[in-house]
Automatic annotation (TrEMBL):
Lineage, highest ranks first: Eukaryota, Metazoa, Ecdysozoa, Arthropoda, Hexapoda
Gene3D superfamilies, A to Z: Nucleoside Triphosphate Pyrophosphohydrolase
Transmembrane segments: none
Domain Nudix hydrolase as annotated: residue spans: 109-266
A Pfam family recorded for this sequence: NUDT9_N
UniProt-recorded name of the protein: Nudix hydrolase domain-containing protein
């Protein structure tokens, strides 16, 4: 059964709020946990932001369409319909030890996309090793996929490409001419993404009422002739970027290791 660990760490990210301790056998909402008394936390940094929902309270005229496409905001979960208890969505995986939204903008699912750009490398014994492009996150310092949030109305596959270009190529600081040339050169490569995962992410920012979900796409350069031309340059919320050999002992942000393992399995099986 799906469970989560990273969103049960003692302290909520970017705060000194301590989560209520949820033992492994009390994660599921189906298991009674009478003592469960999590703190409520919604970071002041998200309040009033255009990308964030308002508070849910008696006076509010905020009437979201849970489990539906709500205008241009996708409030559907990849995991199926989630429960809404007293007007508030419940994390489909279970308890996290904290209620409210933390630093996440949306109640319920917060949708992201993750690009996994891969190529083969030959090691000293001429064995093929799959490599992917990882970024170092500025918030936690962990290595991660260069993913990001889906803008309202944006196609998820387009988010994956945009976030890759912003975080791994720093296009936010590129000139229009540079962006145009990049678009032209890599048009086919970035239109050939294969969906490899869609679902819940065990993100440290998740709460009982707000959580991350993603769709991950693999952009694979089988003979390595295309991606060699990519000028890696960390941008936006990334402070480092590089090619990383996919080996079993690697640790990554959230549940990105599981996504990377899916990509590896797929390529090893078809190689
Ligand atoms: C993770 O957070 C997703 O898998 C994606 O990589 C990322 C999106 O959040 P930001 O990078 O925009 O903070 O859960
Ligand atoms: Mg980003
Ligand atoms: Mg990001």
């Amino acid at each position: 059964m799906l469970t989560h660990f990273k969103c049960r760490a003692r302290f909520y990210p970017r705060s000194n709020i301590e989560r209520y301790d949820v033992p492994d056998n009390k994660v599921s909402w189906d298991i009674e946990f009478k003592k469960y008394n999590p703190p409520t936390y919604t970071s002041p940094t998200i309040k009033g932001k255009p990308w964030a929902d308002p508070e849910i309270d008696a006076e509010s005229d905020f009437k979201p369409k849970w489990n539906n496409l709500d205008g241009s905001v996708n409030r559907m979960s990849h995991t199926g319909n989630y429960t809404v208890l007293n007007g508030i969505p419940l994390n489909p995986v279970g308890r996290t030890g904290i209620t409210g939204r933390g630093v996440l903008g949306r109640w319920g699912p917060n949708h992201a996309a993750d690009p996994v750009v891969t190529r083969w490398k030959l090691d000293h014994s001429n064995r093929q090793i799959l490599q992917f492009i990882a970024i170092k996150r500025s918030d936690t310092g962990e290595w991660a996929l260069p993913g990001g949030m889906v803008d309202p109305g944006e196609k998820v596959a387009a988010t994956a490409v945009r976030e890759f270009q912003e975080e791994a190529l720093n296009t936010l600081e590129a000139s229009e001419a540079e962006k145009e040339s990049l678009k032209e050169k890599f048009k086919d490569f970035f239109s050939g993404g294969i969906e490899i995962y869609s679902g819940y992410v065990d993100d440290p920012r998740n709460t009982d009422n707000a959580w991350m979900e993603t769709v991950a796409y693999n952009f694979h350069d089988n003979n390595g002739s295309i991606v060699g031309e990519l000028q890696l340059n960390a941008g936006d919320d990334a402070v480092g970027v590089c090619w990383v050999d996919i080996t079993s002992d690697l640790k990554f942000y959230a549940s990105h290791k599981d996504i990377i393992d899916c990509v590896l399995t797929r390529h090893v099986a078809s190689n």
